[in-house]
Amino acid sequence: MGHQRVKALDYDDDLDSDDDYFEEGEGDGEFLLKLFTPTQKNMRQGTIEVKAALDDSISISDKEIEEALWHYFYDITKSVTYLKNKHAPMPTKVAAQKKSKQVSRFDRAANSAMNTQVQNASGTVSPYPIPQKPSLEHAIISAAEFFKDVPWLKVPPHRRGDIIIEPLYPRGGLLGGSSKPSKLAALAAARKKKLESEKNSFAAAAAVDAAEQPTDKVVSLLDRLNIKGQGKQDVAANVTKNEISSASVLPIPTLRKYPARRKRSSSPRPAETREDKPASVPASDNLIEILDLRAPPSTFAATMIGAHRPEPRAQSPEGSMFSLYANRPEVANANPFSGPSPDDIVMNAQAKGNKSKKGPLKQPNGGKTPSNLADSVSSLTVEEAPKVKSKNLNVLEEFEKSNMKRMANFVVIGHVDHGKSTLMGRLLYDLKVVDQRSVDKLRKEAENIGKSSFALAWVMDQTSEERSRGITVDIATNYFETEKTRFTILDAPGHRDFIPNMIAGASQADFAVLVIDASGNSFESGLKGQTKEHALLVRSMGVQRLVIAVNKMDTVEWSQARFNEISQQMTAFLVAASFSPKNLAFIPCAGLTGENVIKPPLEKVIPGNWYSGPTLVEALDASEPAKRALSLPLRLTISDVFRGGVIHPISISGRLDAGSLQIGDSVLAMPSGETATIKSVEIEGMPADWAVAGQIATLHLADIDPIHLRLGDIICTPSAPIKNVKSFTAKILAFEHVVPMSVDVYRGRMNAPARVSRLVAVLNKHSGEVEKKRPRIVQPGAVARIVVELEREMPLEVGTRVVFRADGNTIAAGLLEIS
Ligand SMILES: Nc1nc2c(ncn2[C@@H]2O[C@H](COP(=O)(O)OP(=O)(O)OP(=O)(O)O)[C@@H](O)[C@H]2O)c(=O)[nH]1
């Protein structure tokens, strides 16, 4: 700070302007004198010493020395150093300015190359030393030379081997470091040496293997296959023959023990390349001169590789990076596809093993050509499930031999709540078909919902809906037998809403049991309701015999008068409905209490013991067996379609109207026209081999989809099928007025909308003779012939019984005459 202040004294302006500064203590003259006297001495002495310290070659004026001394406050050493540095010879001003900045070696090398080019062009000498070209022969090789025939791995023969790139500069030059090899370099060298020794030993071992075929050597499967494989022998022979002699000269790529690597290298080559260009080294005359369009190396490249311009490159036509060893004779002579592939070797070895153990090995495609294979495939068929084997029974003979108890199916009809189900429940209970325990249980359950009187009815009505509503909805089936007959009960619903179900039941019946409530007004109301309708329906459906159960006699105290009244009225009606009086049987009974069901009523019950007739069961048993159309073609009306589980996925049940069937039979479903095979048969829940007309059978089917089976469809014999018709002529009994009108035609459960298209004639009820042609209307109770047009086809034939309904009422029933 003092120095700065002294130095500032040189500026007059400052001195003049800062008068106060000098006014402290002494006056101006004295102060200056004190100040400059020792300075002048020091300056003279310092100038002498600096001159002495400086080299004589450097010419420096005294003033310059004094300035230095003044600047460095008479420090001789610093002043000398400053002057020396100031007057030392400097190459350029730029270099002097960048003296403090370390010039990178790369920059120096680049500058050198640039100067070299400049020197070559202008003859000037570069200020920097240019690296001298190494004297070794290898040093002439530049990187461009090395890679002149790249892509990689395309090494010319004269350079095949250890490529030694002599460093342009001593190690540790450009990038620093020691000239001693690094550990990594040492490891690489050791590995290389080891591989070479392995290669030589492997080549020798391969030669021995080819001759001796060692078997005791523990090698992997691939090793063994490789050794035994022809491809291996070929390659090994080549390697042995060519490589051992040249191994010391030409370091070859290491041959691996496993052939997969060789396969991998050759497999990508397309077949056409393999055929057109065998794996041989392209001779020199095969080389193609390629126009060298490359630009001269850049400055950087020239620095790195020198100014050498590579010769025009010669490239093999293949120009492939995989041709590194293509010009090697052992590889050139080897056709990689001449022998089996490694996969082939493995497969052949496996085939050998299998052959030795299991005989001839099948070829993957069975030795078939593609065309044969295609033929075989086209000839393949999906084998159908084995048909059920038929016992080929003569069913009619079997039926005769069986001495089967006669069978009868009857439908229980009548107005709603007249006691049909209760009467049948009593029948079954008294016949011990249903045990006491079951009835007690039903009674208890019925009591729980306040319907204790329905307990016996629940023997038949088993669905929750029926039990909760107290009415029968669908046909309920049950079985019992007497000494003479096996009976099937078809309990029909009495409610008018379920007339179709009642028709379905009636279509299976041999006769009918008409239940009439004897209590006050019930009979009369029934006559207005389904009592008459049901009677007419069953009659129109072919039922000729009726057992009329005058039920609930307990409610009228077993009044004979009431019984007689009902009998007379009903007889008149039924005879009018074409029932024969001899086929009508009136039985007084009480289903709820069980009188006269299976046991005659007690005298105390019947006042005056006025009834001595049969019980209900006796009346049933007294019925003439229905004629069975055994010799006619099979006709079975489907009343139920269900899935019988895994074993029986498709099952149907229904009454055989005609014909017979047995296990293994092929049957035809109409109207679908689909065939099925009968797998098994059940009659009354028991397995059977066959079934005949009149029986209600369950058939478990195969070879048919359930969608082709519906309620009311007909199962028939394929050789004599029932036909689907669109129109027919029928003889009808009119219940209501019939005019040309829209109706629904029922055949059992099957129905279809139709139109009465024409009234042909009114017929005599008894003789059937035409009484009036082309009537405009058919009166209720009259018999007439009409023509009906169906909106869709139905399987119908002559003799089929049909029912006509309109607006929920049965208006007529009839028999097909012409279809
Ligand atoms: N007092 C008396 N009641 C009876 C007799 N038979 C049936 N009942 C009663 O009549 C009612 C109807 O009986 P169900 O057997 O259900 O009549 P149903 O004709 O089968 O009825 P649906 O099948 O619905 O048409 C029940 O409450 C029975 O207890 C009988 O002999 N005497």
Description:
With 819 residues, this protein is an alpha+beta fold. It folds into five domains: 306 residues, no CATH class; 59 residues, no CATH class; 223 residues, 3-Layer(aba) Sandwich (Rossmann fold), CATH 3.40.50; 82 residues, Elongation Factor Tu (Ef-tu), domain 3, CATH 2.40.30.10; 95 residues, Elongation Factor Tu (Ef-tu), domain 3. The chain has 28 helices and 24 strands. A six-stranded mixed beta sheet has the order 4-5-3-6-7-8, sandwiched between helices. A hairpin with a 2-residue loop joins β19 and β20. α4 crosses α6. 30% of the residues are buried. The N terminus is likely disordered. The site of guanosine-5'-triphosphate (GTP) has 23 residues, from α20.
β-sheet strand percentage: 15-25%
How many structural domains in the coordinates?
5
> Any idea what the radius of gyration is?
63 Å
The ligands bound in this entry are:
guanosine-5'-triphosphate
Number of helices: 28
- Could you estimate the helical fraction of the residues in percent? 25-40%
What's the count of strands? Answer: 24
User: What's the average pLDDT?
Assistant: 71
First-to-last CA distance: 142 Å
Largest sheet geometry: 6 strands, mixed
Spans of at least 5 consecutive residues whose pLDDT stays below 50 are 1-36, 116-139, 169-179, 207-291, 310-327, 355-368
Approximate shape = elongated
**Spatial strand arrangement across the major sheet:** 4-5-3-6-7-8
Summing up helix and strand content along with how strands pair, one would put the structural category as alpha+beta
Subcellular location: Cytoplasm
Catalytic activity: GTP + H2O = GDP + phosphate + H(+)
Region (Disordered): 255-284, 352-373
Main location: cytoplasm
